[in-house]
Every structure is written in structure tokens, then in C-alpha cells.
Amino acid sequence: MPMPEGQKPEETSRDRCVLVCQNTSCLRHNSQEVLNTFIAEAENVVDVNIEASGCLGQCSTGPTVRVTPDEIWYYRVQPSNVPKIVTQHLQGNEPVDNLLNPRIHPRF
Ligand code: FES
User: Fold this and answer.
1) Residue 10 belongs to a domain
2) What single DSSP character describes residue 103?
């Protein structure tokens, strides 16, 4: 099927998006560096977009990172965690269990 006029091939709805909160509370806990590290580490990963986001509603456990369309939410993410998220989740399709936000991904 031909691509609709104006749509770029890399902007399909199946692309992953990594949203890194850049609101006040997360910024106080280093989320700008988390965002910068994602941009650097995921530079060559296909079908992944890295974006700054507003508050994701998980301020007390930030920096918050949400991966769509997977709907995987990470909490207390630091720059040192980013390479593992990129290789294990974004490239290997296996979310990083110990960084899953327990409010959204409860452990039974
Ligand atoms: S400030 Fe980051 S989740 Fe609210």
C-alpha cells in the first residue's frame, strides 16, 4: 500500500517512543541528563524516538521514563541505567525488571 502523502517512512505508528519527564520534580533528580543519555545511546537504534515530556504523574518516584506503545514505565531512572534500557528493552524487547515502576507494574 502506498504511503499517505506527507508521511515519512520513519514516522509510523508502530515506532517506539521514549518519553523522559522534564518537569520540575524529575529535573531535580537529574532527568535532563537521563534525556541526554537516551539521545546519545539510542542514536543508532531504529524505530525509536526519544522525546522530552511534561509531567507523567509519577513525580515522587522520578525521573520517570515511559516507553510507548509498550506502556512500560520506569522509575528513578539515572543516566547509568540508560544503556541497559537501550540494549535490553529497546533492542532486545525485554523490559528491565528492576526499574519497572511498581505502582504501574505491581509485583505479585
Ligand atoms: S515531574 Fe516527572 S512525573 Fe511529575
Assistant:
1) no
2) T
